[in-house]
Amino acid sequence: MSGVRAQQKQKTRQALIVAAFNQLSAEHSFSNLSLREVAREAGIAPTSFYRHFKDMNELGLTMVDEAGLTLRQLMRQARRRIASGGSVINTSVLTFMEFIDTSSNQFRLLLRERSGTSKAFRAAVAREIQHFILELAHYLEAETPCDANHAYMQAEAMVTLVFNAGADALDQDVQQREELTERLIWQLRYIAKGANHYGTHQVNSKPS
Amino acid sequence: MSGVRAQQKQKTRQALIVAAFNQLSAEHSFSNLSLREVAREAGIAPTSFYRHFKDMNELGLTMVDEAGLTLRQLMRQARRRIASGGSVINTSVLTFMEFIDTSSNQFRLLLRERSGTSKAFRAAVAREIQHFILELAHYLEAETPCDANHAYMQAEAMVTLVFNAGADALDQDVQQREELTERLIWQLRYIAKGANHYGTHQVNSKPS
DNA sequence: TATTTTAGCGTACAAGTGTACGCTGAGATT
DNA sequence: AATCTCAGCGTACACTTGTACGCTAAAATA
């Protein structure tokens, strides 16, 4: 049971995933990929694809998981930087922008399938984003004078803005990205300010 | 020059556009459409398609324009409601949600092509959204104590949140939509509050 | 060692795609 | 009335796609 067999299988399985990611780009989305092209790039026969995934759909869901994993790992790293004395907003934003830069295809997948044609895909992406929101909400509830409900809404708004800024950044050059990032940081400050205002007291009263 | 000829041409051209919109759905995106299927639904031969558009791409851009037009018309209507004494945030949000409900396929197109595979598409959608942002920014600058720069950032953040909430709403039932709308309204208040705080005075000082 | 399992291959096929080409007949133009 | 224009059609072709089926050789198991 040395597992030479299973080991090789994992290897080509991974080759398929890598091949699929490589074929994603600004001009090529997941739904444009064909089983045959992916198999070709992975160096196996089209029909061998089925030894690993029953479907292109199944491949896609695996890719979403993988992208989510990458993102979560990066953000864990961000939390370490924050713990050792970085500004929360700045560090998080910069880390996210780093993700977009170094793993743009993974981000593109999440971004596109969020509003894609497969309900399963949309749900999978929504789950990944939800992770983020909950984590941030938990942090905000603990570290700022905000009740749970407002902490959640605040987190949701922030994650939405960050994610969207990431999407815009994909098409931009360095100069534009810097301006975008600066605007984003201001916008996050707005939200923090507003949430702390409304979330701290008189939660149920209408604002003026 | 009665134009019977040209009139008929416009008619089938419109039939193509309608056919294409009809084939959009939660499970079917623009890039899934085939020229042949669109032509079939419009009731013409595949090759006749070329009498109207050089490309599926050209059809798509026309559709984006049309969707943008619908949206702008709806928002003009919203402005009238506001002028006759409605709350700004509430009225705008409700109007937008109405757009998503009654013209979901048009919204889906904008939503998806915003991060789609064609740069021209992305630019076209970005332009439509930019209209919105500028219009709102102008309003905010005039009606609230906010300098131009902060008014723009505020408007951008608000439009982003509204647009994204619309995207989420597409998959939701009435109950969930109500909750979503309520959260959205709070989030917009956060932004308004924060922007007025930072944008009114001491613009260049760091927040506490 | 003999047997079973299985990753990967090659062949084959039906279905669908975009589009080149030439024709027709009904409006438009002269 | 004679001519031109051109929206729409049908045929045809070269491709690409997913996948069913059966084979092989090497690893795993007995």
Automatic annotation (TrEMBL), chains A, B:
DNA-binding region, residues: 34-53
Boundaries of every HTH tetR-type domain copy: 11-71
Name of a matching Pfam family: TetR_N
Entry-linked PROSITE patterns: HTH_TETR_1 (PS01081), HTH_TETR_2 (PS50977)
Cleaved signal peptide residues: none
Keywords: DNA-binding, Transcription, Transcription regulation
Molecular functions per Gene Ontology: DNA binding
InterPro entries: DesT_TetR_C, DNA-bd_HTH_TetR-type_CS, Homeodomain-like_sf, HTH_TetR, HTH_transcr_repressor_FabR
NCBIfam families: PRK11202.1
Protein name (record): HTH-type transcriptional repressor FabR
